[in-house]
Amino acid sequence: MSLRKNRELHESNPSTPEGHHASAIEIIRREDFSDITYLLEIRHPMMAKAARPGQFVIVMSHENGERIPLTIADFDREQGTITFVIQAVGKTTKEMQRDCRAGTELISVTGPMGKPSLIRNVGKVVCVGGGLGVAPVFPLVRAYREAGAYVIGVVGFRNKDLVFWDDKFLQYCDEFIICTDDGSTGIKGRVTDGIELAIEKHPDIQEVLAIGPPIMMQACAETTRPYGIKTTVSLNPVMVDGTGMCGGCRVKVGDKMKFACVDGPEFDGHEVDFADLMNRLGRFSKEEKIAVEKWTESCKARI
User: Fold this and answer.
1) Residue 109 CB-density burial (10 A; 0-12 exposed, 13-18 middle, 19+ buried)
2) Secondary structure percentages of the chain, helix, strand, coil, to 5
């Protein structure tokens, strides 16, 4: 099935005359990992069947809401569920943190979008997740293991209180390295230290895949560059429609311009222009700050 047909198939329908949305998606589970990080699980059998590691969806929480891209953190084809792990950093994600509970609905979930990860038995692979990037790297860990690869998981958090899903990673990783900034659990250091440890022990590592903040993914790519290890990163530029039409998700990869939503989101980390990516991500920081401040004030006014 084509990506375009997939999107049409899974996009929510307009309102019915009664004011209810025929295809609104129910949230069946909510879990909070920290004061800003939370999990939402929805039931959508068709999307769960179509989902592949590395893909994302476009979500609208309510009729007048913003369209935001969320990477698929997990999917269960038997249960028909899709899982997202979200960080409340902007107006929309803060609003969703406040309003999205088990039993409530998302008005629109469109996807799966993006090219799926190329999963195969590559011998030894290192899957790296930093902070919120730990969640979307999990489906890759599971898929590589199921494909027969030797999987080394490397995850990074600021401290042990922020660690989540270590049990899920341990289930599929042949080796698992937790890195914390303060050394409160695992090794003290960043995920790049974990990568170095893995390479030192396994000089025959064939691939590294990293998901996390741009500066972290850049550091991972620079860590592997001297070894000549293929390194893939999953990019998160500003995205509006998820179809390549808006042009907001342009990224420079080598000497070419790519669209993360249709050409990615995964690219060769050694070819990505991270300076350009981070510049684009900061382009609307002023507007985002104003939006959060206005929303916060409106919330206070209701109290």
Assistant:
1) buried
2) 35, 30, 35
Report yes or no: 116 and 199 within 8 Å, Cβ to Cβ. no
Better pLDDT: 192 or 90: 192
**Structure token digits, residue 198:** 């893995």
- Rounded to an integer, the average pLDDT of 68-90 is 95
Domains of the chain: 3-113 (2.40.30.10), 124-281 (3.40.50.80)
The whole-number average pLDDT for the span 153-171 is 96
Question: What does the alpha-carbon distance between residue 10 and residue 2 come to, in Å, rounded to a whole number?
Answer: 12
Predicted TM-score (pTM) above 0.90: no
Burial of 208: CB neighbours in 10 Å, binned 0-12, 13-18, 19+: buried
